[in-house]
Each structure stands twice: as structure tokens, then as C-alpha cells.
Amino acid sequence: MKLLHASIKPIVIFFVVIMPILACTYSDDLMMFNENSAEQASAPDFIVTTFDGQTVQLNDFRGKVVVLNFWAGWCVPCLTQLTTLQATWEQYQSQNSDVVFIGIAYADNNPSSIQSLADYSVTYLNAPDIGTQISDAYGITGVPETFVIDRHGNIAEHAIGDVTISHLMEWVDSALEGDTP
Questions:
Q1: Cβ pair 147, 155 in contact under 8 A
Q2: Which of 6, 22, 123, 154 could hold 40 in an S-S bridge, CB 3.0 to 4.6 Å?
Q3: In angstroms, what is the C-alpha Rg of the chain?
């Protein structure tokens, strides 16, 4: 029995300690996206109240391209990605384009999320994912995770891990031009 207990301990440590760290660790190998997928999934609709009190429904943005990012204040790669997302958001806003950015704070408490948004001068829409209902609907596997939703409400791109400004702009521009399948 002692031998069985000793062999299980490393497995438990791996899943309790190592896996959460890996889920929030940046790696180019973790970045995945669904280029040219034959069949696009419809983005699950949701209604959320932002940290500044606005009620937002995803379907209200039909006709616009939506960048939906799942993040958390306790995730270091997420925090560095806030800068990338904010810079990209500002570029599209300066062009008066039909692009909306929404950040969803995953498994985070409001004061921590609000402080992170202030620390990184984030101005695009952000809201808590109360009970992880939105995250569950999108089937996220960790944070950060980003979805680009086309004008028709379909998921055009999906990235697990950090995204670069160039990738994000390429995906958004493609969705704006209607080049998504």
C-alpha cells in the first residue's frame, strides 16, 4: 500500500502544481488557431455586466468584428498580453473601424481584475465571468485565450496562449474583409 501511495504522489503533484502553471505559461507551441477551417462554429452568445456597469450582449455586435479575450489578473502572460490587446484596440479605434474588443476575466475577483486593468491602462470593454459560464460556453482550456468573431457571429480565429499584434491584426483584417470561411 505504501508503494502505491508513493507512486501516486508524483502524479498528484503534477496535476495540482505543474498543470496550472503550464496552462498559464507562454509558449509559441501553445498558440493555435483555426486557419481555413472548413466549418465555423457560431460564437456562443452571452450577456455580461462590465466592470464599469455597462450591460453588454455579444449578439448586439453583429455586423462588427469582435475580439474576445479570456484572461486573469493572476496570470502573468495574460497581463503582458493586455498591453498587446490595448495597442491593437487603439489602432482600430483610431481608424473608426467596426471592431470591438471584450475582455473576460476568468476565475478572478473583481478588485484584482479592476486593478490589473488600471495598471495596464486598458480602455476596451472588460467584464468578470461570474461562475465561469462564458468560459465554459467557449470551452477554454486556460488563459490567455483569444477568439476573433466575424461579422456574422462565427468564430473566425482562436488562439491559445499569447498573441502578437501582427497575428491579431491579420485575423481582424481578414474578418473585416470577409475573408473568413
A1: yes
A2: 154
A3: 18
